[in-house]
Amino acid sequence: MQTIIGANGAIGTPLAKELRHYTDRVRLVSRNPKAVHPDDELLAANLLDFKDIDRAVAGSEVVYITIGFAYNIHEWRKVWPPFIQQMIEACERHNAKMVFFDNVYMYDIKAIPHMTEDAPMHPPSKKGTVRKQLVEMIFEAVEAGRIQALIARGADFYGPGNTTSFLIETIAKPLKQGKRVTILGAADKKHSYTYTPDAAKATAILGNTPDAYNQIWHMPTHPDTLTQREWLELFAREMGIAVPKYSVLPKWMLGMLGIFVPFMREVHEMIYQFDRDYFLDSSKFEQRFNFQPTDYQTGARATVQAL
Hints:
Elements (H helix, E strand, L loop, with lengths): L1 E4 L6 H8 L6 E5 L10 E4 L5 H8 L4 E4 L7 H22 L2 E6 L23 H18 L5 E5 L2 E3 L7 H11 L4 E4 L5 E2 L1 E3 H12 L8 E3 L7 E2 H12 L6 E4 L1 H8 L3 H7 L14 H7 L6 H11 L1
Parallel strand pairs: 1-2, 1-4, 2-3, 4-5, 5-6, 6-11, 7-10, 8-13
Antiparallel strand pairs: 9-12
Helix pairs in contact: 1-6, 2-3, 3-4, 5-7, 7-11, 8-9
């Protein structure tokens, strides 16, 4: 049995498809799980309740944590640490391996132009501080011999399906809907994006590779990084429309908008990821598993077709 905690999301759904290459028993866990295959095991659970977490993990060989909580620092501080602590305890109790799908928020700002798995964890944001805490909790349990775990770490997402990301929400969807495009931070800075089908495939590979555990892996991300303006041009080309005029939303304006729009207030502290070059180096995974990430044109085409 392999179990996905937080099923049916941007990673959970394609991951469920990929896991069928390794097992015919896949358990999907969320508040309202939906089957990807007719014989998937569905478990409705409150993932803030330890009894439900324990029930979800019981009988699992590998547990994939792909859940996301509300994008709010107060919610993150309240929910993430106890959730991960309970996941660690449940995996230890049931002798299940843990695969935690993570982001790059905990990295030092100086690492952003070229992030590797060895980048120092010195987060410049409150959300990054929470993510750093989770990583430390997991590896403390690993070093104590309590569990086997690995971290699968991706850049911002894009891809077909129910993918929600800055790229999709600020460029692809408005472009598709004929609305004005607003670029975060800077239009001329390069920014890596991880294609969700690649990330799902890589996560399944790692979860089923015994010697991949107890370390960090960057998800395969194509090295030919584009600027945000180039992303806009690429999406417009795939939609068969002219490149429209766009506006750039700088940090100071985000701060002003944050007074009135809660989501913008949450984005404000993360703008440093968009006002400089941002490159996720995934060569460790690519070399180990001979994996070629999907090129951005192919990924953009599939994303547009699914919008």
